Amino acid sequence: MDTKQIAIIAPRGTIRRFATAGAINTLLFWILWEILRLSPALELFSETGVWAIAWIISCTIAHFTHRYFTFDGRKDVKTTMIGAFTVYAIGGALSTISYEFLVSNLAFQIRLIFVINMLIWGLFTWASMRWFVFEYDE
């Protein structure tokens, strides 16, 4: 599939394009989270702690994925990096709180909780990145 076909199916800035990049970012996040859960880090930091660690590491990767694929690189990278990490810090803190709430209060399978939490905070991140960080306007 070439660039023109991608632009027709999922134009820059759309939730479809964000979801495509987000799927890759989420896969990387999930793999990192699973590795941390299998490591001694789980006992050292707790279930919520390894969630937060995986979130922080994956944020750097996600910023550049969204900068170059989802939106565009017209704004200064320092500006978008500061904005993205502000969004990620807010989303990271609130998603960690919601993750802890879900883990503590629901008898759902842990991976279902992961998916529910990622969907909620993925929508928040897309809207914040589109309108505040990249100020993307078609």
Number of DSSP-assigned strands: 0
- Termini separation comes to 22 Å
Assembly state of the chains shown: single chain
Q: Radius of gyration, Cα only, in angstroms?
A: 16 Å
**What percentage of residues falls in helices of 4 or more residues?**
over 70%
Structural class computed from helices and strand pairing: mainly alpha
Give the helix tally: 5
What's the overall average pLDDT, rounded? 87
Largest sheet composition: none
Features:
138 residues; mainly alpha; 83% helix
Structure description:
- The chain is an all-alpha fold and 138 residues long.
- 83% of the residues lie in helices and 0% in strands.
- Helix 2 crosses helix 5 and helix 3 crosses helix 4.
- It is elongated and about 45 Å long.
- 24% of the residues are buried.
- The model has no long low-confidence stretch (mean pLDDT 87).
Q: How are the SSEs placed, and which strands pair?
A:
Blueprint: H1 3-9, H2 15-38, H3 41-70, H4 77-105, H5 110-133
Helix pairs in contact: 2-3, 2-5, 3-4, 4-5
